[in-house]
Write a structure and sequence with these properties.
The complex is a heterodimer of chains A (about 130) and B (about 120).
Chain A lengths: L4 H6 L14 H32 L5 H4 L4 H29 L5 H27 L1
Helix pairs in contact in A: 2-4, 4-5
Chain B lengths: L3 H6 L8 H29 L4 H8 L2 H29 L3 H30 L1
Classes of the chains: A mainly alpha (about 130), B mainly alpha (about 120).
Chain lengths: ~130, ~120
């Protein structure tokens, strides 16, 4: 439905939706998948430009010195978490696309598996990158 | 890429349908397969301190291929996802079109810059 000028003029009230609906494993994981996807797009653009500019600057050492900053470390950590989360919930989506696990109890179970796997993957990747 | 129903009924106002969906799933599956090479690359990079060694590592075909394939597939997958997000939340047609074109332009410029950087490293 398009917001017509008349609707805006009359200021008709809307019944509450997001403010009253109980968050569930289905809805929270779904919006998390979208939000992490958005964040990962930004992160990928930034990462590809970081790499390109590093190469074009004749491999200037500044591009590696920035990793000592706390802010950059925090951003990297959140990117790692976002990637693990998006990967886990994404595989859940791909399994649905094949047609498996559509009933409510399977969906709840796979949802919690996805959350656990995202945390485990985050730990593995943080170890791989920083230690 | 058209479904049989769309061949019979014709395409709707979006002008495309299953093409986007298949590309999104295909790139996702490809990236799931690429996670192991990617983890190997990250593990190998962690043990390297000097930047000259990083360049030397990246010149190996396995590492440069897994890196560039992952990066380009992921930005294409991201562009497809962003298209869905924009379609869902922006209702003004002009703004939707402008933002969509801007995002695609940024994506393409980033991909080209990345490819040129990869070529620069190999040569």
């Amino acid at each position: 439905m398009q917001d017509t000028a008349n609707d805006l003029k009359l200021k008709r009230p809307l019944s509450p939706h997001l403010s009253i609906y109980k968050p569930q494993i289905s809805s929270v994981l779904s919006i998390g998948h979208r939000v992490t996807g958005f964040g990962l797009y930004i992160a990928t653009i930034l990462m590809m430009w970081w790499f390109a500019l590093w190469v074009f600057s004749e491999f200037d050492s500044w591009y590696f010195k920035i990793f000592d900053h706390t802010l950059i470390k925090v951003i990297i950590f959140f990117t790692i978490y976002g990637y693990s989360y998006h990967l886990s919930t994404g595989i859940r989506h791909l399994i649905w696309d094949v047609g498996i696990g559509y009933d409510i109890s399977s969906m709840n179970f796979s949802g919690w598996i996805a959350v656990c796997s995202s945390l485990i993957l985050t730990l593995i990747l943080t170890y791989l990158i920083w230690f | 890429m058209k479904s049989d129903l769309s061949k019979a009924k014709g395409l709707g106002s979006a002008k495309s349908g299953v093409h986007h969906w298949i590309h999104q799933r295909f790139t996702a599956l490809f990236m799931v397969c690429l996670t192991l090479p990617l983890f190997m690359l990250l593990w190998k990079l962690n043990s390297i301190s000097l930047e000259a060694n990083i360049i030397h590592l990246l010149r190996k075909p396995f590492y440069i291929l897994s890196y560039s394939l992952f990066a380009i597939t992921s930005i294409y997958h991201g562009m497809l996802g962003m298209k869905v997000i924009i379609e869902d939340y922006i209702h003004c047609e002009t703004l939707k079109l402008i933002i969509m074109l801007l995002l695609q332009l940024i994506t393409i410029i980033t991909i080209v810059a990345f490819i040129i950087a990869i070529i620069y490293i190999i040569i």
